Amino acid sequence: MTQPLAYRMRPRNLSEVIGQQHLVGKGKIIERMVSAKMLSSMILYGPPGTGKTSIASAIAGSTKYAFRMLNAATDTKKDLQVVAEEARMSGTVILLLDEVHRLDKTKQDFLLPHLENGRIILIGATTENPYISINPAIRSRAQIFEVKPLTEENIHHALIQALADDERGLGQYDVELDEMALVHLSRATNGDLRSALNSLELAVKSTPPNTDGKISISLAIIEECVQLKSMSHDKNGDAHYDVISALQKSIRGSDVNAALHYLGRLVEAGDMLIICRRLMVIAYEDIGLGNPAAAARTVTAVQAAEKLGFPEARIPLANAVVDLCLSPKSNSSYTALDAAIADIRSGNTGDIPDHLKDSHYQGAKALNRGVDYQYPHATEQGWLSQQYLPDKIKKARYYEPKHTGKYEQALASRYEEINRLNKQ
Fold first, then answer.
1. What pTM was computed for the model?
2. CATH class of the domain at 348-423
3. GO biological process: what's one of them (predicted)?
4. Which top CATH class is 238-325?
């Protein structure tokens, strides 16, 4: 059976790796390890089709070590034993272990001594964040490298290479690829080179040649053959949390276009719960007293979205995102509370003043509870000066108002007036 084009075009050495120059370029970490013949185990993590397996096979090709591939989820301890025996008999083996985050304890315990003595050089591949998903015992014995999504230019270059390669690629076919088709194929797979190459091969092999023997690949043909990759993501994956983080930071930074983009990704993923929860957090954490009405409108939008469901839910959610983005921002209230909590946790509290203590029981007066308390509502201005904080921290000032919105500006004026009267 003929291997897929993406498999055949795997790099044979580091110089053939597409992209990832921050790792395999001249003078970069993996290139240095190969040049010095000082390979160590590593974990490569990043999106599918971006070159994790390619880097592993290129390392093996550059070093001439035996290269074996297993899957941590589906292959057994016995499969690992076969690799270990090969390493014992013939020397070092490079083991590419796909889905390394799913390595169970039995397989891990078997692998660890072989990693320690260097007989097996583990190259773990995963789409999950290894700092979250991989057992510390494995993580501590491997260097961690992030594999970046390939650029449109990277994909374009690899497709041209595949069309020209007579030995491994499609060079034996007389292909005429429309420029717009090439651009579309470079973009539509969103950095997944494997998908781009296999879509190209399908287009070439399924299109009959014309009378001149040429296989003409148009944009329409490529659109039929390429499997469009959605920018949505696994709800449990590391990328999901990156999108949530990007949404909040874009709203905090008042970039309405970026915020709508990340909202769109979450809408495409269909994750109503996390969108609604995150928008309410943002409303109170980032907008806060800068525009309290926006927080109330966000709660209303969330309630509407939950009742409507997708696809209509996107409408109130978009309203909320634009509103929050363009609202004045203030985190003064919760940072003030955090400052107060920090004092409490450090033991900086003190006893509650007697005049504030509960006096609604017999004998309270004898204990001086509630005595000398002054009732603010009994005054014309609704305020009077008396001590509320414990003696130990009576001068503490936690709340520092911001002046980003009219509402908090009014609060700040009242706050400063009260502080001034207190000093008098």
1. 0.60
2. mainly alpha
3. DNA-templated DNA replication
4. mainly alpha
Q: Please check whether the domain covering 5-146 is classified as CATH 3.40.50.300.
A: yes
Is residue 237 pLDDT above 70, yes or no?
Answer: no
Contacts for 317 with CB less than 8 Å, ≥ 6 apart: 263, 267, 275, 276, 279, 301, 302, 305
Q: What is the rounded distance in angstroms from the CA atom of residue 414 to the CA atom of residue 101? A: 55
Q: What percent of the chain has pLDDT over 90?
A: 34
Highest-confidence range of 146-150, 327-331, 373-377, by mean pLDDT?
327-331
What residue segments make up the domains of the chain, in order of their start?
5-146, 152-225, 238-325, 348-423
Q: What's the rounded Cα separation, in Å, for the pair 75 and 294? A: 53
The mean pLDDT value for 168-193 works out to 88
Report in angstroms the alpha-carbon separations of 225 from 47, 151, 246, 277. 22, 21, 32, 39
What are residue 145's phi and psi, to 5 degrees?
-125, 130
One-letter identity of residue 238:
D
Contact 168, 8 (CB under 8 A): yes
Backbone φ, ψ for residue 267 (5° rounding): -65, -45
Stronger pLDDT, 253 or 191, i.e. the higher one: 253
**End-to-end alpha-carbon separation of the chain, Å?**
91
